[in-house]
Amino acid sequence: MTAMSKKNPPSNDQSYEQSNHQSNDQSKTQSTSETPRLRASFEEAQKDLGSGTQHYLHRIKSFVLRTGRLTPGQAKAIETLGPQFLLPYTGQTIDWEKSFQNSETSGLSTPINQKSRPKILEIGFGMGETTAKIAATRPEDDFLAIEVHEPGVGALLKLIGEQGLTNLRLMRHDAVEVVESMIPDDYLDGVHVYFPDPWHKKRHNKRRLIQPEFVALLSSRIKPGGYWHLATDWEEYAIQMMEVLSAESSLIITGALAGGYAERPSYRPVTKFENRGIRLGHGVWDLVFKKQIN
Ligand SMILES: C[S@@+](CC[C@H](N)C(=O)[O-])C[C@H]1O[C@@H](n2cnc3c(N)ncnc32)[C@H](O)[C@@H]1O
Q: What is the pLDDT of residue 31?
């Protein structure tokens, strides 16, 4: 089954837009309901939106700051769990072991925070349901999950509290900058990018996260032998992802399906939205690449 053989959801499908957590409407602005503590970190990300910096990675953002109020439960989760689970953007190399240090070890078969614990980065977790499920089913791994949308951060912190997850830390910042300035070379054991904003319209395609420059940057941060797993329901973006990642010489394609796509790995749960899409005959494409071992 190839990307070309599947149908796209119609681009004017309102429920598709909503369930994909992103309207791509550039006129919307950041919520005024956000907490002061998060605001400081986020203002740094905003500065770059109009700064005119010449660095290619800073010119065009892959997200738009959306309106959206925190529910009382999300606000409470940020207030109570933020100090432990929400890491600040510092622009300095992350101290991963220290960041995960205060985790509870109860219920985990492997002692947490050993240097050898695999480090998995997720970019753009939305409301975090998938992230929480994966963290729960892989207690031996540590997950750093990044998202710019504050209600999403609140929602995932709430899930962390409800499910007693200990192997997950969040950051609210532009993931491109986090990768660029906080993640060392050959560092990550895995990367997850699930249903990144497709930026359907031709004139918005340049906002897509998966571009050659970013792929080269993020690949340099993956350990030799580490993996990069992506999924999308947008055919044209699947093709772009396949082209761009295949062209990155440090990555090896692992998918066994036609066109190089992969079967959905069992750790990635099928989302409600995905189930609906499958019923309607829409496609979903998983891509799994490995970093070359020199
Ligand atoms: C379409 S949603 C998908 C969310 C989730 N992965 C899922 O499968 O439901 C894409 C998310 O990526 C986030 N995002 C886009 N660019 C980002 C960036 N550079 N840094 C952090 N988050 C980003 C958006 O805010 C949005 O919530």
A: 40
87, containing H or E segment:
strand 86-87
- Mutation test of ligand 1: which of 58, 181, 197, 271 has the most ligand atoms closer than 8 Å to its C-beta? 197
Domain 23-47+54-86+116-291 has CATH 3.40.50.150: yes
- What digits encode the pLDDT tens for the residues 21-78? 343 433 333 443 455 555 554 454 444 433 333 454 457 999 998 878 999 999 999 9
What pLDDT sits at residue 5? 45
How remote is the C-alpha of 38 from its chain's centroid? 19
Cα–Cα distance between 153 and 86 in angstroms, integer? 9
Catalytic residue among 189, 197, 233, 286: 197
Q: What is the pTM of this model?
A: 0.83
Do residues 108 and 102 lie in contact, with contact meaning Cβ atoms separated by under 8 Å?
Answer: no
Residue nearest to atom 11 of ligand 1 (CA): 124
* Domain spans in the chain, listed from the N-terminal domain onward: 23-47+54-86+116-291
246 Cβ partners below 8 Å, 6+ apart? 253, 260
**CA 12-18-23 angle, 5° bins:** 70
